[in-house]
Amino acid sequence: MKKFVTLLSAVALSAPLAMPTTASAQQSSSMLNVSLPSGVSSANLGKRDKQTIAVQAMLDRTRHSPGVIDGLMGGNTRRAIQAYRQANGLGSSGAIDQQLIQSLVENAGQQVFQQYTITSDDVNGPFTNIPSSFEQKAELNRLSYTSPRELLAEKFHMDQDFLTALNPGVDFSNAGATINVIAKGDGQIPGNVARIEIRKSENAVVALSSGGQVLASFPATIGSSEFPSPDGTMTVEAVAPEPKYYFSPEGRDWGPNEKLTIAAGPNNPVGGTWIDLSKEGYGIHGSPDPQLIGKTSSHGCVRLTNWDAEALAEAVESGVTVAFT
Q1: Are both 151 and 233 inside the same structural domain?
Q2: Bridge-partner residues for 117, per DSSP?
Q3: Are 157 and 166 in contact, with CB atoms under 8 Å apart?
Q4: What is the Cα–Cα distance from 184 to 61, expressed in whole angstroms?
Q5: Under 8 Å between Cβ of 18 and 112
Q6: Which of 42, 68, 102, 236 is most exposed, with the fewest beta carbons within 10 Å of its own?
Q7: Alpha carbon 227 to chain centroid distance?
Q8: Contact 322/233 with Cβ under 8 angstroms?
Q9: Which H or E run contains 197?
Q10: Is 157 in the same domain as 204?
Q11: Residues 178 and 218 occupy one common structural domain
Q12: Of the candidates 186, 215, 231, which is a domain's last residue?
């Protein structure tokens, strides 16, 4: 069981709640007053920005996922800002301005950091060194996390280096140690998902209600120029938590020349969750490399972070429409 203790910090609005005339980074930088956890300095953050950390944390709690929370402004965070703004009637830009901050605080609360006590389950493993080749992976009984640090970072939707930056000198294999983490979302999508849109041009997966309301959005890796994702409409066939990965060389000009079965686990090639689609061989799934979502290519399927794939899988049923647009 997770044990949450003292709240460390909160975001505070430090300016009147009025829309500024522009949304420049210089103006918006004064909108948030974010205190770092005790013992953590700006030097520990490096190039990470406190305002970006706060916005990423709040977006995560509104189910407009920024992907890995790392404190760095990038394409996935901008996409999440734009999706949130559109869903909440704030226009279609990806800007951080006072109107966005006010809305996020109202909808997600002001919490940015919290403390977490590492448990024995977090450190007992088993942990596995993951080899690079499919043949070597197929020899493993499970593709587990590689370390307690990786497990904890994924548990709180964080980049591993960012977790380390927030906990200078901490041994993450020490059960009972208290660490600083992000106050992430609960992973639950409200309402019933009736339609999933795979928006190729946006590198995004969007979950909608039967009335067209956006319930959640996620950054995604969607095919590639060499292995494009399909067009048209499919349906969800089934959901497989803890999927194995079955590789066949038939019809492929990449990978090994033999059929292989790779065991389940978060570092499996399809991550910790598989949402099976009605076109054979296609699915929405997790990833062993959450920091690469939206930044690399796939072999036609749709990759999400493990936690986003799990949240979507818990909210869909067989027969839900999946549209590639």
Answers
A1: no
A2: 178
A3: no
A4: 6
A5: no
A6: 42
A7: 23
A8: yes
A9: strand 195-199
A10: no
A11: no
A12: 186
Tens of pLDDT along 280-301?
889 999 999 999 998 765 456 8
Predicted confidence at residue 268, as pLDDT, reads: 95
Calpha distance 56→219 (Å, rounded): 13
Total domains in the fold of the chain: 2
Q: Which residues pair with 195 in a beta bridge?
A: 208, 321
Q: Are residues 177 and 210 in the same domain?
A: no
What is the domain extent for residue 234? 195-324
pTM reported for the whole predicted model: 0.88
d(CA 73, CA 1): 32
Identify which of 3-7, 20-24, 30-34, 141-145 has the greatest average pLDDT: 141-145
Same domain, 137 and 97: yes
Nearest partner of 193 among 323, 60, 58, 79, judged by Cα:
323
Of 115, 114, 111, nearest to 176 (Cα)?
A: 115
Residue 175: CB atoms within 10 A of its CB come to 13
Tokens 């930056």 appear where? Answer: 165
Tell me, yes or no, whether 284 and 155 share the same domain: no
Same domain, 51 and 96: yes
Please name every residue paired with 277 in a beta bridge, in sequence order, or none if there are none: 236
b (16+ CB within 10 A) / e for 227-237: eebeeeebebb
Per DSSP, what are the bridge partners of residue 35?
none
Scanning 95-231, the segments in alpha helix (DSSP H) are 98-108, 120-123, 134-137, 148-155, 160-166
Residue-wise pLDDT for 220-278, tens only, equals: 999 755 666 778 999 999 999 999 999 877 755 556 678 899 999 999 999 999 999 99
Query: Shortest CA distance to 89 belongs to which of 97, 79, 99?
Result: 99
The residue from 186, 204, 239 where one domain ends is 186
55 and 200: one domain?
Answer: no
Residues 6+ apart with CB under 8 A from 138: 260, 261, 262, 263
